[in-house]
Protein backbone atom coordinates (compact mmCIF):
# COMPACT_ATOMS: atom_id res chain seq x y z
CA UNK A 1 0.00 0.00 0.00
CA UNK A 2 1.29 3.50 -0.75
CA UNK A 3 2.44 6.00 1.90
CA UNK A 4 -0.41 8.32 0.95
CA UNK A 5 -3.04 5.64 1.29
CA UNK A 6 -1.52 4.63 4.59
CA UNK A 7 -1.64 8.20 5.87
CA UNK A 8 -5.35 8.30 5.12
CA UNK A 9 -5.99 4.92 6.72
CA UNK A 10 -4.17 6.04 9.87
CA UNK A 11 -6.99 8.39 10.89
CA UNK A 12 -5.41 11.50 9.47
CA UNK A 13 -7.71 14.49 9.47
CA UNK A 14 -7.96 14.94 5.74
CA UNK A 15 -11.45 15.49 4.33
CA UNK A 16 -11.93 13.39 1.23
CA UNK A 17 -15.19 15.12 0.42
CA UNK A 18 -13.28 18.37 -0.04
CA UNK A 19 -10.26 16.95 -1.86
CA UNK A 20 -9.25 15.82 -5.30
CA UNK A 21 -8.46 12.13 -5.62
CA UNK A 22 -5.22 11.25 -3.88
CA UNK A 23 -2.42 9.57 -5.85
CA UNK A 24 0.51 7.46 -4.71
CA UNK A 25 3.60 9.28 -3.45
CA UNK A 26 6.89 7.41 -3.76
CA UNK A 27 9.69 7.74 -1.23
CA UNK A 28 13.11 8.56 -2.72
CA UNK A 29 14.30 5.30 -1.14
CA UNK A 30 12.17 3.44 -3.69
CA UNK A 31 14.46 4.62 -6.52
CA UNK A 32 17.68 2.55 -6.61
CA UNK A 33 19.60 5.36 -8.33
CA UNK A 34 18.55 8.16 -5.96
CA UNK A 35 21.01 9.90 -3.62
CA UNK A 36 18.86 8.74 -0.70
CA UNK A 37 19.18 5.08 -1.74
CA UNK A 38 22.94 5.56 -1.99
CA UNK A 39 23.04 6.88 1.57
CA UNK A 40 20.74 4.14 2.89
CA UNK A 41 23.11 1.53 1.44
CA UNK A 42 25.70 2.57 4.04
CA UNK A 43 25.75 0.29 7.11
CA UNK A 44 25.78 3.46 9.24
CA UNK A 45 24.61 6.87 8.02
CA UNK A 46 27.03 9.65 8.93
CA UNK A 47 25.78 13.19 9.33
CA UNK A 48 26.87 16.57 10.68
CA UNK A 49 24.62 18.78 12.81
CA UNK A 50 25.62 22.31 11.77
CA UNK A 51 26.09 25.12 14.35
CA UNK A 52 24.13 27.87 12.56
CA UNK A 53 23.14 29.33 15.94
CA UNK A 54 25.32 31.21 18.44
CA UNK A 55 26.80 28.78 20.94
CA UNK A 56 26.54 25.84 18.60
CA UNK A 57 25.34 22.87 20.65
CA UNK A 58 27.30 23.59 23.82
CA UNK A 59 26.44 25.93 26.67
CA UNK A 60 30.07 26.64 27.54
CA UNK A 61 32.25 29.74 27.37
CA UNK A 62 35.52 27.86 26.80
CA UNK A 63 37.22 29.56 23.80
CA UNK A 64 36.67 27.87 20.42
CA UNK A 65 36.31 28.63 16.72
CA UNK A 66 32.67 27.51 16.41
CA UNK A 67 30.67 30.26 14.72
CA UNK A 68 27.13 30.64 13.38
CA UNK A 69 28.15 32.55 10.23
CA UNK A 70 27.37 31.23 6.75
CA UNK A 71 31.00 31.05 5.63
CA UNK A 72 31.99 29.00 8.68
CA UNK A 73 29.12 26.57 8.17
CA UNK A 74 29.68 26.34 4.43
CA UNK A 75 33.28 25.34 5.12
CA UNK A 76 32.02 22.62 7.48
CA UNK A 77 29.64 21.26 4.85
CA UNK A 78 32.33 21.15 2.17
CA UNK A 79 34.72 19.42 4.59
CA UNK A 80 32.04 16.89 5.59
CA UNK A 81 31.34 16.19 1.93
CA UNK A 82 35.06 15.68 1.24
CA UNK A 83 35.23 13.22 4.14
CA UNK A 84 32.32 11.24 2.71
CA UNK A 85 29.61 12.28 5.18
CA UNK A 86 26.10 11.51 3.94
CA UNK A 87 23.97 14.25 5.41
CA UNK A 88 23.94 17.68 7.04
CA UNK A 89 21.16 19.62 8.68
CA UNK A 90 20.68 22.36 11.24
CA UNK A 91 18.06 23.56 13.69
CA UNK A 92 15.43 26.21 13.13
CA UNK A 93 14.46 28.63 15.88
CA UNK A 94 12.47 31.80 16.39
CA UNK A 95 13.54 33.63 19.52
CA UNK A 96 13.09 37.13 20.93
CA UNK A 97 16.00 39.48 21.54
CA UNK A 98 18.70 37.86 23.63
CA UNK A 99 17.72 34.28 22.78
CA UNK A 100 18.11 32.00 25.78
CA UNK A 101 20.80 34.22 27.28
CA UNK A 102 24.49 33.58 27.70
CA UNK A 103 26.24 31.97 24.73
CA UNK A 104 22.82 31.18 23.20
CA UNK A 105 22.19 34.86 22.55
CA UNK A 106 19.76 34.35 19.66
CA UNK A 107 22.11 35.10 16.76
CA UNK A 108 21.28 32.49 14.13
CA UNK A 109 20.91 31.84 10.43
CA UNK A 110 17.72 30.38 8.99
CA UNK A 111 18.04 26.65 8.36
CA UNK A 112 15.97 26.61 5.16
CA UNK A 113 17.82 29.49 3.53
CA UNK A 114 21.26 28.29 4.63
CA UNK A 115 20.83 24.77 3.27
CA UNK A 116 19.14 26.10 0.13
CA UNK A 117 22.19 28.26 -0.59
CA UNK A 118 24.38 25.17 -0.31
CA UNK A 119 22.49 23.13 -2.92
CA UNK A 120 24.49 24.82 -5.67
CA UNK A 121 27.83 24.59 -3.81
CA UNK A 122 27.80 20.85 -3.07
CA UNK A 123 27.71 17.76 -5.24
CA UNK A 124 27.07 14.61 -3.21
CA UNK A 125 25.96 15.27 0.36
CA UNK A 126 22.26 15.34 1.34
CA UNK A 127 21.02 18.70 2.66
CA UNK A 128 18.06 18.64 5.05
CA UNK A 129 16.46 21.90 6.20
CA UNK A 130 14.61 22.01 9.50
CA UNK A 131 11.23 23.63 8.88
CA UNK A 132 8.43 24.60 11.28
CA UNK A 133 5.63 23.62 8.92
CA UNK A 134 2.85 25.15 11.07
CA UNK A 135 4.30 28.64 11.47
CA UNK A 136 2.85 31.63 9.68
CA UNK A 137 5.16 31.97 6.64
CA UNK A 138 4.32 28.56 5.17
CA UNK A 139 1.40 27.66 2.95
CA UNK A 140 1.55 24.12 1.48
CA UNK A 141 1.68 25.54 -2.04
CA UNK A 142 4.71 27.72 -1.23
CA UNK A 143 6.38 24.86 0.61
CA UNK A 144 5.81 22.31 -2.15
CA UNK A 145 7.07 24.68 -4.84
CA UNK A 146 10.17 25.84 -2.96
CA UNK A 147 11.20 22.35 -1.86
CA UNK A 148 10.59 20.81 -5.30
CA UNK A 149 12.76 23.55 -6.81
CA UNK A 150 15.55 22.83 -4.34
CA UNK A 151 15.23 19.11 -4.95
CA UNK A 152 15.63 19.85 -8.66
CA UNK A 153 18.67 22.12 -8.14
CA UNK A 154 20.34 19.58 -5.83
CA UNK A 155 19.52 16.65 -8.15
CA UNK A 156 17.58 14.80 -5.49
CA UNK A 157 19.74 15.70 -2.48
CA UNK A 158 17.17 17.89 -0.71
CA UNK A 159 15.49 16.86 2.53
CA UNK A 160 13.17 18.32 5.14
CA UNK A 161 13.36 17.86 8.90
CA UNK A 162 9.69 18.47 9.73
CA UNK A 163 9.08 20.14 13.10
CA UNK A 164 5.84 21.47 14.57
CA UNK A 165 7.27 23.94 17.12
CA UNK A 166 7.40 23.19 20.84
CA UNK A 167 8.37 26.49 22.50
CA UNK A 168 5.62 28.78 23.69
CA UNK A 169 7.68 31.89 22.87
CA UNK A 170 7.88 30.88 19.19
CA UNK A 171 4.13 30.39 18.86
CA UNK A 172 3.58 33.72 20.60
CA UNK A 173 5.91 35.49 18.15
CA UNK A 174 3.55 34.41 15.38
CA UNK A 175 0.56 35.70 17.32
CA UNK A 176 -0.74 32.37 18.67
CA UNK A 177 -1.03 30.53 21.93
CA UNK A 178 1.00 27.33 21.95
CA UNK A 179 -0.92 24.58 20.17
CA UNK A 180 -1.43 21.40 22.19
CA UNK A 181 1.25 18.78 21.53
CA UNK A 182 -0.70 16.00 19.81
CA UNK A 183 -2.87 18.43 17.83
CA UNK A 184 0.31 19.89 16.31
CA UNK A 185 1.10 16.50 14.79
CA UNK A 186 -2.43 16.17 13.44
CA UNK A 187 -2.09 19.58 11.78
CA UNK A 188 1.35 18.67 10.45
CA UNK A 189 -0.17 15.51 8.96
CA UNK A 190 -2.68 17.59 7.02
CA UNK A 191 0.11 19.85 5.82
CA UNK A 192 2.37 17.03 4.64
CA UNK A 193 -0.56 15.20 3.02
CA UNK A 194 -1.23 18.30 0.93
CA UNK A 195 2.44 18.93 0.11
CA UNK A 196 3.00 15.33 -0.95
CA UNK A 197 0.01 15.50 -3.28
CA UNK A 198 1.32 18.71 -4.83
CA UNK A 199 4.63 16.94 -5.47
CA UNK A 200 2.91 13.91 -7.02
CA UNK A 201 -0.25 15.16 -8.74
CA UNK A 202 -0.13 15.46 -12.52
CA UNK A 203 -3.35 17.48 -12.53
CA UNK A 204 -4.60 20.48 -10.56
CA UNK A 205 -5.27 19.59 -6.94
CA UNK A 206 -7.98 20.76 -4.51
CA UNK A 207 -7.84 20.11 -0.79
CA UNK A 208 -9.60 21.48 2.30
CA UNK A 209 -8.18 20.47 5.68
CA UNK A 210 -10.20 20.04 8.84
CA UNK A 211 -7.79 21.59 11.35
CA UNK A 212 -5.96 24.31 9.44
CA UNK A 213 -6.99 27.60 7.86
CA UNK A 214 -5.21 27.20 4.49
CA UNK A 215 -6.90 25.65 1.45
CA UNK A 216 -5.89 24.49 -2.02
CA UNK A 217 -8.13 25.08 -5.01
CA UNK A 218 -6.89 23.87 -8.38
CA UNK A 219 -3.27 24.07 -7.22
CA UNK A 220 -0.33 22.71 -9.21
CA UNK A 221 3.43 22.56 -8.69
CA UNK A 222 6.28 22.18 -11.13
CA UNK A 223 9.03 21.00 -11.32
CA UNK A 224 8.25 17.67 -9.74
CA UNK A 225 10.88 16.20 -7.39
CA UNK A 226 13.35 13.98 -9.21
CA UNK A 227 12.78 10.86 -7.10
CA UNK A 228 9.19 10.89 -5.93
CA UNK A 229 9.64 13.39 -3.13
CA UNK A 230 12.42 14.85 -0.97
CA UNK A 231 13.77 12.97 2.03
CA UNK A 232 11.50 13.42 5.08
CA UNK A 233 12.82 13.44 8.65
CA UNK A 234 11.31 14.28 12.01
CA UNK A 235 12.58 14.32 15.59
CA UNK A 236 10.43 12.83 18.29
CA UNK A 237 10.04 10.75 21.42
CA UNK A 238 6.29 11.02 21.97
CA UNK A 239 3.53 8.62 20.92
CA UNK A 240 2.04 11.19 18.54
CA UNK A 241 5.43 12.03 17.06
CA UNK A 242 6.35 8.38 16.56
CA UNK A 243 3.03 7.78 14.80
CA UNK A 244 3.72 10.77 12.55
CA UNK A 245 7.17 9.39 11.76
CA UNK A 246 5.72 5.96 11.08
CA UNK A 247 3.34 7.41 8.50
CA UNK A 248 5.57 9.94 6.76
CA UNK A 249 9.27 9.94 7.59
CA UNK A 250 12.18 8.09 6.02
CA UNK A 251 14.39 8.87 9.02
CA UNK A 252 13.42 9.60 12.62
CA UNK A 253 15.75 11.64 14.79
CA UNK A 254 15.72 10.06 18.25
CA UNK A 255 17.26 10.91 21.61
CA UNK A 256 18.18 8.68 24.50
CA UNK A 257 15.13 8.03 26.70
CA UNK A 258 17.55 7.42 29.60
CA UNK A 259 19.28 10.80 29.51
CA UNK A 260 22.79 11.82 28.40
CA UNK A 261 24.92 9.14 30.09
CA UNK A 262 26.21 6.98 27.24
CA UNK A 263 26.11 3.68 29.16
CA UNK A 264 22.50 4.21 30.24
CA UNK A 265 21.66 5.32 26.70
CA UNK A 266 23.10 2.12 25.24
CA UNK A 267 20.89 0.11 27.60
CA UNK A 268 17.72 2.02 26.72
CA UNK A 269 18.14 2.58 22.99
CA UNK A 270 17.50 -0.98 21.68
CA UNK A 271 13.93 -1.05 22.95
CA UNK A 272 13.30 2.55 21.92
CA UNK A 273 14.64 2.07 18.39
CA UNK A 274 12.70 -1.17 18.03
CA UNK A 275 9.51 0.59 19.07
CA UNK A 276 9.95 3.28 16.42
CA UNK A 277 10.70 0.75 13.69
CA UNK A 278 7.75 -1.45 14.71
CA UNK A 279 5.41 1.55 14.45
CA UNK A 280 6.52 2.09 10.84
CA UNK A 281 6.26 -1.61 10.06
CA UNK A 282 2.57 -1.54 11.04
CA UNK A 283 2.11 0.82 8.09
CA UNK A 284 4.16 -1.37 5.78
CA UNK A 285 7.06 1.05 5.88
CA UNK A 286 10.74 0.95 6.82
CA UNK A 287 12.20 3.79 8.87
CA UNK A 288 15.77 4.51 9.95
CA UNK A 289 16.87 5.98 13.28
CA UNK A 290 19.33 8.84 13.68
CA UNK A 291 20.99 9.94 16.94
CA UNK A 292 23.00 13.12 17.54
CA UNK A 293 25.97 12.55 19.85
CA UNK A 294 28.46 15.32 20.56
CA UNK A 295 31.96 13.91 20.14
CA UNK A 296 34.86 14.96 22.38
CA UNK A 297 37.89 13.13 21.01
CA UNK A 298 41.62 13.49 21.58
CA UNK A 299 44.62 11.28 20.94
CA UNK A 300 44.36 9.70 24.40
CA UNK A 301 41.44 9.05 26.72
CA UNK A 302 43.06 11.23 29.40
CA UNK A 303 43.37 14.17 27.01
CA UNK A 304 39.75 13.78 25.89
CA UNK A 305 38.43 13.69 29.45
CA UNK A 306 40.52 16.70 30.43
CA UNK A 307 39.10 18.60 27.46
CA UNK A 308 35.55 17.61 28.41
CA UNK A 309 36.18 18.66 32.02
CA UNK A 310 37.37 22.07 30.79
CA UNK A 311 34.21 22.48 28.69
CA UNK A 312 32.03 21.64 31.69
CA UNK A 313 34.08 23.88 34.01
CA UNK A 314 33.17 26.79 31.72
CA UNK A 315 29.46 25.88 31.67
CA UNK A 316 27.42 28.99 30.89
CA UNK A 317 24.80 29.25 33.59
CA UNK A 318 23.10 32.09 31.74
CA UNK A 319 22.04 29.80 28.93
CA UNK A 320 18.76 27.89 28.75
CA UNK A 321 17.23 29.77 31.65
CA UNK A 322 14.47 30.90 29.27
CA UNK A 323 14.06 27.51 27.60
CA UNK A 324 10.38 26.53 27.61
CA UNK A 325 9.54 23.35 25.78
CA UNK A 326 7.00 20.54 25.75
CA UNK A 327 9.05 18.49 23.29
CA UNK A 328 9.03 14.93 24.60
CA UNK A 329 12.22 14.01 22.73
CA UNK A 330 14.36 16.29 24.92
CA UNK A 331 13.07 15.23 28.33
CA UNK A 332 15.29 13.24 30.64
CA UNK A 333 15.06 12.06 34.22
CA UNK A 334 18.34 13.59 35.40
CA UNK A 335 19.29 15.91 38.25
CA UNK A 336 20.04 19.60 37.77
CA UNK A 337 23.84 19.24 38.11
CA UNK A 338 23.97 16.44 35.52
CA UNK A 339 21.68 18.43 33.27
CA UNK A 340 23.94 21.50 33.43
CA UNK A 341 26.98 19.38 32.55
CA UNK A 342 25.08 17.76 29.69
CA UNK A 343 24.12 21.15 28.28
CA UNK A 344 27.74 22.22 28.38
CA UNK A 345 28.60 19.30 26.09
CA UNK A 346 25.50 19.30 23.91
CA UNK A 347 22.41 18.45 25.93
CA UNK A 348 22.00 14.96 24.47
CA UNK A 349 24.37 11.96 24.61
CA UNK A 350 28.06 12.70 24.30
CA UNK A 351 30.93 10.41 23.39
CA UNK A 352 34.26 11.16 25.04
CA UNK A 353 37.52 9.30 24.53
CA UNK A 354 40.37 8.34 22.29
CA UNK A 355 39.72 7.61 18.60
CA UNK A 356 39.46 3.90 19.41
CA UNK A 357 36.98 4.54 22.24
CA UNK A 358 34.85 6.87 20.13
CA UNK A 359 34.74 4.40 17.24
CA UNK A 360 33.87 1.55 19.61
CA UNK A 361 31.02 3.54 21.13
CA UNK A 362 29.60 4.34 17.69
CA UNK A 363 29.78 0.62 16.85
CA UNK A 364 27.84 -0.12 20.06
CA UNK A 365 25.24 2.51 19.17
CA UNK A 366 24.77 0.83 15.80
CA UNK A 367 24.30 -2.54 17.51
CA UNK A 368 21.72 -0.87 19.77
CA UNK A 369 19.52 -0.11 16.76
CA UNK A 370 20.84 3.30 15.72
CA UNK A 371 21.08 3.47 11.92
CA UNK A 372 22.97 6.75 11.76
CA UNK A 373 24.79 9.35 13.83
CA UNK A 374 24.36 13.07 13.27
CA UNK A 375 27.52 14.39 14.90
CA UNK A 376 28.20 17.67 16.59
CA UNK A 377 31.40 18.95 18.18
CA UNK A 378 32.44 21.61 20.66
CA UNK A 379 35.07 23.24 18.43
CA UNK A 380 33.69 22.24 15.05
CA UNK A 381 36.47 22.86 12.51
CA UNK A 382 39.45 21.28 14.31
CA UNK A 383 37.29 18.57 15.90
CA UNK A 384 35.77 17.59 12.55
CA UNK A 385 39.25 17.44 11.02
CA UNK A 386 40.46 15.21 13.86
CA UNK A 387 37.43 12.94 13.55
CA UNK A 388 38.04 12.58 9.82
CA UNK A 389 41.73 11.76 10.30
CA UNK A 390 41.55 9.46 13.32
CA UNK A 391 38.03 8.06 13.84
CA UNK A 392 36.58 7.67 10.35
CA UNK A 393 39.23 5.12 9.25
CA UNK A 394 38.34 3.02 12.31
CA UNK A 395 34.64 3.08 11.36
CA UNK A 396 35.61 1.81 7.92
CA UNK A 397 37.69 -0.94 9.48
CA UNK A 398 34.69 -1.89 11.63
CA UNK A 399 32.55 -2.27 8.50
CA UNK A 400 30.24 0.66 9.28
CA UNK A 401 31.32 2.80 6.35
CA UNK A 402 31.86 1.84 2.73
From TrEMBL:
PANTHER family in the cross-refs: ALKANESULFONATE MONOOXYGENASE, ALKANESULFONATE MONOOXYGENASE-RELATED
Lineage: Bacteria, Pseudomonadati, Pseudomonadota, Betaproteobacteria, Burkholderiales
Entry-linked Pfam families: Bac_luciferase
GO molecular function: monooxygenase activity; oxidoreductase activity, acting on paired donors, with incorporation or reduction of molecular oxygen
Protein name per UniProt: Luciferase
Keywords: Flavoprotein, FMN, Monooxygenase, Oxidoreductase
Organism: Caballeronia grimmiae
Luciferase-like domain span: 46-371
SUPFAM superfamilies, A to Z: Bacterial luciferase-like
